[in-house]
Amino acid sequence: FLFFFLLYTDYMQNVHGKEIDLLRTTVKVPGKRPPRAITTTAPSASPKTNGLAKDRSNL
Prior knowledge:
By secondary structure, this protein is low in regular secondary structure. The protein is built from one helix and two strands. GO terms for molecular function: GTPase activator activity; GTPase activity; zinc ion binding.
């Protein structure tokens, strides 16, 4: 668990703290990419097409 206090005086008096369960929390780290999710049931789409087929014959 992580405890968050809005004010320093609340921390010093140990009052009004918020408890955060870190098991279900995602932390974004600046400069780092999140890990890629791997699916084993469905084939992944090409990252360049974003899952959409590009039809350029009508352009």
